[in-house]
Design brief:
The complex is a heterodimer of chains A (72) and B (273). With 72 residues, chain A is mostly helical. Chain A has 4 helices and no strands. In chain A, 54% of the residues lie in helices and 0% in strands. A 6-stranded antiparallel β-sheet of chain B has the order 1-2-14-11-13-12. A 4-stranded antiparallel β-sheet of chain B has the order 3-10-6-8, covered by helices on one side. Chain B has a two-stranded antiparallel ribbon with strand order 4-5. In chain B, α1 packs across α4. The chains are: A mainly alpha (72), B alpha+beta (273). Chains A and B meet through α1 and α4 of A and β9 of B.
Chain lengths: 72, 273
């Protein structure tokens, strides 16, 4: 749906970092490459998303709000 | 007992406390997680029905998310807190809600747009600003609008995670890796790589520690002949805050709060008849 505000496990605010992560990934994709594991790792590290509970919040998220927007 | 700050940022602190027992260390950890007060939005009034803008265009208050989901997301947003604010149940207004215990906020947004936490505007208390302005709350389609007023009150993490200030609170023993120079020939390389983590050195041995959070120093664990020494009286703590309070404020409050709570327990003890 839409990225949860806080990490389910530890309570860190992840929603604002998700936006930055997405722009970082889009920047890499705009050059025609797929982001590599190392690039994803570095983007998360630079954002200060340290623990794996917060990392999975960002990595495993699928934004579906645009899909349900026409039906509200 | 001695507390030493190893690393301090606005929202992060790493510190060590010596000569304590594991149970005291754990009580400090639990106080940091669940017993620090902060402001969080607790009551939300969502306007239902038609909303009109300045040019008399009509908008609808229906949203792509349920109202309670939006309310929960707004509540989770961190708000900069003044610790002098009262808890509502202890306030001189007898729980009615006044400027000393409540901060009011409002959102007024017309679609199509994304409502961010920066759109939550403080009304009564201009100092209670939003600490993280980049959080998406909800997305609005064309002809949709959001009109909300909300009250924030003080609370503690033990009640709800929206009142949790410190995240990732952890503690560990102070640990030393003693490398024998004759067994590991390229010790000079590691000395240069982890210069910050070197504690002491003599002709035969070099001692590293992983107290300072230097990345990669843990690989020394697996080297041949490394002696690992841990002390169960010397603890390294670290935690980060969500921005509602500064890390150092949080730590100071926690250390004052712990004896307070123990006194509450002592006072409640009654001698048997």
């Amino acid at each position: 749906m839409i990225i949860p505000v806080r990490c389910f496990s530890c309570g860190r605010v992840v929603a604002s970092d998700y936006e930055k992560f997405k722009t970082g990934m889009d920047k890499i994709r705009s050059t025609g490459k797929k982001p590599t594991d190392a690039e994803i790792e570095k983007t998360l590290d630079d954002l200060g998303v340290e623990r794996y509970c917060c990392r999975r919040m960002i990595l495993s998220h699928i934004d579906l709000i645009d899909e349900i927007l026409p039906f509200s | 007992m001695e507390l030493k700050i190893i690393e301090l940022k606005e929202r992060f602190v790493r510190f060590s406390i010596s000569d304590i027992t594991p149970s005291i260390a754990n009580s400090i950890r639990r106080t940091l997680i669940a017993d620090i007060p902060k402001l969080a939005i607790d009551k939300v009034v969502i306007h239902h029905g038609q909303i009109r803008d300045m040019e008399n265009h009509q908008y609808d208050s229906s949203l792509p998310l349920f109202d309670e989901v939006v309310a929960q997301r707004i509540a989770m947003v961190p708000i900069r807190t003044d610790l002098k604010m009262n808890f509502r149940e202890e306030c001189s207004c007898n729980g009615q809600g006044c400027a000393l215990c409540t901060a009011t906020f409002s959102i007024n947004k017309l679609g199509p747009c994304v409502v961010y936490s920066s759109d939550i505007k403080p009304v009564s208390n201009p100092e209670a600003t939003i600490a993280d302005t980049n959080i998406p709350i909800v997305k609005l389609g064309p002809k949709q609008a959001l009109l909300i007023s909300a009250d924030a009150v003080m609370g503690r993490g033990s009640t709800h995670s929206k009142w949790q200030v410190a995240n990732g609170v952890s503690h560990k023993y102070h640990r030393e890796f003693i490398l024998k120079k004759n067994l590991i020939t390229d010790w000079e390389k590691y000395k240069k790589l982890y210069e910050k983590s070197v504690l002491k050195e003599n002709d035969k041995e070099i001692v590293f520690t992983d107290d300072y959070g230097v990345r990669g120093v843990a690989q020394l664990f697996e080297f041949p002949g490394v002696e690992i020494r841990e002390e169960n009286t010397n603890f390294i703590f670290k935690f980060e805050t969500d921005g509602s309070l500064q890390a150092i404020e949080t730590l100071e409050y926690a250390l004052k709060r712990l004896p307070q709570r123990l006194n509450i327990m002592l006072d409640s003890l009654v001698a048997p008849d």
